[in-house]
Amino acid sequence: MSEISGDEANAGESEDRLLERNLASARLLIAYLAHNHREAPAELVSRVIEACRTPRDDWDAAREAQFWLDLNAAVVEYVLPLLLGLLGAIVFVLREISREIRAKIFLPNHTESYRIRLYLGMIAGLTFAWLFSWIIPAGSESGLGAASPLAIAFMVGYSVEILFSALDRIIGSMTKKKETEKTDPTVTSV
Predict the structure, then answer these.
(1) Domain segments of the chain: what residues?
(2) Residue 95: what pLDDT?
(3) Under 8 Å CB-to-CB from 121, ≥6 apart: which residues?
(4) Is the entire prediction scored with pTM above 0.90?
(5) Cα gap 165→34, rounded to integer Å
(6) Mutual orientation of helices 80-102 and 111-127 as an angle, nearest 10°?
(7) Is there a contact between 153 and 88 (Cβ–Cβ < 8 Å)?
(8) 3-class DSSP state for residue 133?
């Protein structure tokens, strides 16, 4: 039997403690993600845990795990609504072109308006993600809250008129309120 020196025993023990701390850091990051109502994909969770299993500095593992979590959040919050708004606009344009071809009124010079519609769909999907996602309560079981924000980004991209008319009404009500305050001295602002 070979004897294990004291240094080797301490090195093995410190690696075990480092591994435990790394796994604890990964669990904390996953709990943080779940607490903020973001669903962690299984691949992301396994990548975080795998990154934390390698014996290295606790800070490096946590930083790498946080990078993947931030990247996932950025994609879900910004890139996906933009792409789903574009997809909704593409579906609208294809249906409109199909309708015009069936009615034999398709004009090739309308392609510029269709291209603009695609840009508006992307902007509408992103705008919804930025501005209106706070209006819909999380976990609501009725109305728009029953649909996911990504599905609504698709619908907004399909029908950009709804989003932009809602924005026009909001801005209109704000400017009317300010005009009323300026012309009627009895109206006081809160």
Answers:
(1) 6-183
(2) 95
(3) 85, 86, 87, 88, 89, 90, 92, 157, 158, 160
(4) no
(5) 35
(6) 150
(7) yes
(8) coil
